[in-house]
Amino acid sequence: MSMTGPAAIPLSMLLVFVAAKVMAEVFERLNQPGIVGEILAGVLIGPSVLGWLGPNEFLAALSDLGAMFLLFRVGLEVKSSELMKVGGTATLVACSGVVVPFLMGWGILLAWGEPSNEAIFVGASMVATSVGITAQVLAAKGLLHEVSSKIILAAAVIDDVLGLLVLAVVSSLTHGKLNLAQLGTTAFLAVAFTVIVAKWGTHAMERFVPHVERHLKLGEPQFVLSMAMLFSLAVLAVWIGVAAIVGAFLAGMALAESTGPRLRHLSNGVAELLVPFFLAGIGLHVELSAFSSGRNALLALIILVAAMVSKFIGCGLGSWAMGKSEALRIGVGMIPRGEVGMVVAQIGLGFGIIRQHIYGVVVFMSVATTIVAPPLIKMVYRGVKPVLAAEPAAAEEEVFRME
Amino acid sequence: MSMTGPAAIPLSMLLVFVAAKVMAEVFERLNQPGIVGEILAGVLIGPSVLGWLGPNEFLAALSDLGAMFLLFRVGLEVKSSELMKVGGTATLVACSGVVVPFLMGWGILLAWGEPSNEAIFVGASMVATSVGITAQVLAAKGLLHEVSSKIILAAAVIDDVLGLLVLAVVSSLTHGKLNLAQLGTTAFLAVAFTVIVAKWGTHAMERFVPHVERHLKLGEPQFVLSMAMLFSLAVLAVWIGVAAIVGAFLAGMALAESTGPRLRHLSNGVAELLVPFFLAGIGLHVELSAFSSGRNALLALIILVAAMVSKFIGCGLGSWAMGKSEALRIGVGMIPRGEVGMVVAQIGLGFGIIRQHIYGVVVFMSVATTIVAPPLIKMVYRGVKPVLAAEPAAAEEEVFRME
User: Does residue B387 sit at the A interface (CB-CB below 8 Å)?
Assistant: First the structure.
């Protein structure tokens, strides 16, 4: 199958999108979350099974954009004031959810007889939560308005900042000198960026959006402003050191209270098209080097179980004061590692600290946690009444404008 | 400005999107079509002026997708039965709109003293109409329901098939042997594909869409089916030899009568995001080699005027029976060459038949016709009452679903 020439773009769109949706349908029919099907579709068409497609730059770009629009859309449903309220618990959840997985990953690799630096990197790759997966499941089930959901979202954002620091420390420890001043600056900037946008972004947009609406002459002013916010906060986030999706989430949250249903319609369209590329993109990265030997396959399974148990215990402990059932939900909701764990492992691979078969173990852990988590999330939220955020019918007829 | 690393994707999205929209706003305030501003934004940030960005694979992919969604969205507003009704006139318009520009371009280059093969290729590059630009202007002004608009759309589709044949003939004449059997097969396949989808696509979808809606369990079944149609018809179109956007347009038209407002909301979102990349992407290709000498700059201006006059005369003559004002509109609406002319010139460049400075002339002609046409289109449609295709408020509250 030729993947170059003028048909390359629509052909790879077709393959990934249709594979993801066919598998989503299969999983829905099995009463399982469709999201798991979409991730597995990537595994299926990817290099490790059918080999129709491998990860490439174009698909990686669509996957990045898909993750950004997923988090932007979730941000649009969340009030920053409510997220700030759970900030204390979320910080606790994030911190203990970082410490326990790191120690467990490090310890297991050491006990397995691997080099100390490699053990440190594997521990670091188990730290960060992939908030996209959980957010998608919660949003689809109409559960974003639960307190536990807000704690998960806030903790995942804090997690990203902590993960950045852990990665910086780990890279310095294993690869160079630890520059405390630089680390302090990075930490300060990351926290300042997140807190400032979360705290004053909504207020600023409440003043700015009506102004833009009144004075701009081009079509869809809210959408145009929102995309500018989304991409500029994503760029800022990356420059500061946190993930682009954190910027996208903050952009959505800043706009949540000042924008109307039309923006939600339009950005939902983009998300519907691109999120399957994010999900299948995770699956595309699966490779079989983790299973090159029986011993390594066993390690992969142990690390997977440790990744699940450690986040569950760490985050559950951090939210124990909220009561057992909330702690259970938060512990399960923080399990998926997704693309974040892979990035850390890739850096270790680039440094020559992580070897290929251990890289395979981390990738397996990252993908498998995202596949295992959605059914568990569904289970622990069973019986909770969904609050579906309606897209209210527009008061006036919306006109088909193109400019 | 670094265009690699994790910020590359959101940064280039930000630059192109915001530049396009700022320029659109400027042009709207000058009472000019915003679309011209979006194309000029590409010229401005591109290599020939500010040099912030050049054409690259990622932007080219977004531009291709933008053009597909533009035509898909237009297709959704057009009934295939109405398009078939104007098929006779449209064929006449397309044919005379191919012959006159070809002869004029060829003649001018010969008179200018250029080699005969190069003259043939320049003539061929003046043949095809870029339907995207005109369709966008007509849709924005609510004029898609005019008879002249339908003739323009149908003629542009036929134009694309004719352009394919002209390119095949020209390539064989200048570069190899003319294989009549192969040419016949290509022509037959292209015509068969277009006619079959246009004639029976709507009917097939009217049976298929309700079935899919009833039986699929995943979210947004209409959107999922539509994307599958869009991408598969785009792939088929390319494989057969016509442009991907022809497939996208046919997909939209096939779905026009069986899908609801929700699909329009969602695909409008994708189009709002991506169409600026198509428009600015045209501008990004402008290069200054056309103006390397005074003599060449003069040729560029002559070719631009010839491109406009020849399409205007050719298409106007083909639709003369419709009355003077309709012929005027059709003649003007077929002027933009956009990306299609550039593709032909690139092939000539690849064969070594077109030299760099003549390539620059064709690129200038392609971009300049797309910039000049929208104000002219606005002018010739002055006084025509717009029929804005409403996006009717959904009967029931649409629910925020993510899966």
Answer: no
Distance (Å, rounded) from C-alpha B187 to C-alpha B81?
A: 23
Region label for B142, one of left (φ > 0), alpha (ψ between -120 and 50) or beta (otherwise): left
Q: Does B291 touch chain A (CB under 8 A)?
A: no
- Which residue range forms the structural domain that includes residue B28? 17-380
ipTM metric: 0.87
The CATH number assigned to the domain holding B205 equals 1.20.1530.20
Q: Token pair for residue A29? A: 């029919």
Q: How many structural domains does chain B have?
A: 1
Q: Determine the Cα–Cα distance for residues B303 and B282; give it in Å rounded to an integer.
A: 18
Question: What residue type is assigned to position A190 of the chain?
Answer: A
Q: Residue B269: enclosing H or E segment and its boundaries?
A: helix B261-284
What secondary structure letter does DSSP report for A321?
G
Judge whether A327 lies within some domain. Answer: yes
**DSSP character for B354?**
S
Highest mean pLDDT among A216-220, A234-238, A399-403, B395-399: A234-238
User: Which residues in chain B have Cβ-Cβ distances shorter than 8 Å to A238?
Assistant: 5-7, 10
Q: What is the pLDDT of residues B282-312, one digit of tens each?
A: 888 887 778 888 899 999 999 999 999 999 9
Task: Assess if residue A399 is contained within a domain.
Answer: no
Cβ contact, residue pair B398, A391, below 8 Å: yes
Helix A244-255 vs helix A147-175: crossing angle, to nearest 10: 150
Tell me, yes or no, whether A402 lies in a domain.
no
Q: Is residue B6 part of a domain?
A: no
* Residue A130 Ramachandran class (φ > 0 left, ψ -120 to 50 alpha, else beta): beta
Q: What are the pLDDT digits (tens) for A249-285? A: 999 999 999 998 999 999 999 999 999 999 999 888 8
CA quadruple B66, B72, B74, B77: dihedral, nearest 10: -150
Contacts of A302 (CB under 8 A, 6+ apart): A108
**Residue A400 touches partner B, C-beta closer than 8 Å:** yes
Give the angle subtended at the CA of A23 by the CAs of A17 and A26, to the nearest 5°.
Answer: 145
Asked if residue B237 lies in contact with residue B193, where contact means CB atoms within 8 angstroms, the answer is yes
